[in-house]
Amino acid sequence: MKTMTQRMFNEVKDGMAAAVRSAAIKSGDIAMETCCSLLFHEPKIPMELLKASANK
User: Fold this and answer.
1) pLDDT given for residue 51 in this prediction
2) 3-state SS string over the chain?
3) Of 10, 32, 36, 41, which is least surrounded by CB within 10 A?
4) Is the pTM of this model over 0.70?
5) At a CB cut-off of 8 Å and minimum separation 6, what does 46 contact?
6) Residue 17 pLDDT level (bands cut at 50, 70, 90)
7) How far, in Å, are 9, 10, 12, 17, 52 from residue 2 at the CA level?
C-alpha cells in the first residue's frame, strides 16, 4: 500500500511529464512550420534583372 506522500509524488511526476510532453510537441510543430515556410519562400525578382542576366 502506497503512502500519501508517494501518491502525491507520483501525481506530480505524471503531471510534469504530461506538461513536458505537450511542450515538446508544440515546439516541434512550431519548428516544423518555420522550417517549411522558409523552404517554400520564393522571393520576388524584378523582370528587368532576369532579362539583364539572360542577355549577358
Assistant:
1) 78
2) CCCHHHHHHHHHHHHHHHHHHHHHHHHHHHHHHHHHHHHCCCCCCCHHHHHHHHHC
3) 41
4) no
5) none
6) very high
7) 11, 10, 15, 20, 79
